[in-house]
Amino acid sequence: MFDRLEIRVLPSGPRFPAQLRFWVNGEDVVEETVGEGGRGPYAADALPAGHPSPLRATGEARLLEVGGPDCTGGCCGFLTVVVQRCGEIVQWSDWEVPWGAHTEMPSPPPELHFDASQYDAEVTRAEADRWWQAYS
Known about the structure:
Elements: E1 5-10, E2 19-24, E3 27-28, H1 29-34, H2 43-46, E4 62-67, E5 79-86, E6 89-96, E7 112-115, H3 116-128
Antiparallel strand pairs: 1-2, 2-3, 4-5, 5-6, 6-7
């Protein structure tokens, strides 16, 4: 059984511009791992206008920043994952979690496996839905 990805854009707030959140199987990966107040990558960076999103999975594994603590990650680190397409599967693996904001090391999410067509469709939908630009 495959995991299911949903990409949501949170509007700009007082401290940060619009940001992405990644919901996998109905759970917010950033909040579950980093905690309340964690943030996702900026929407403008993750969904650049006129360019393919770095969320696009290819046969070449690459590190992707998917979140961080409220302190911006410079002191505590970032929530990162290795993204790679393996045939008809997109794999998220080798998580690194921010540590400084917690009294004990948080557990990384499990390795995730997405159906490549569902994953591609969700990234395409997020790239096309640019409502957040009007409020950035």
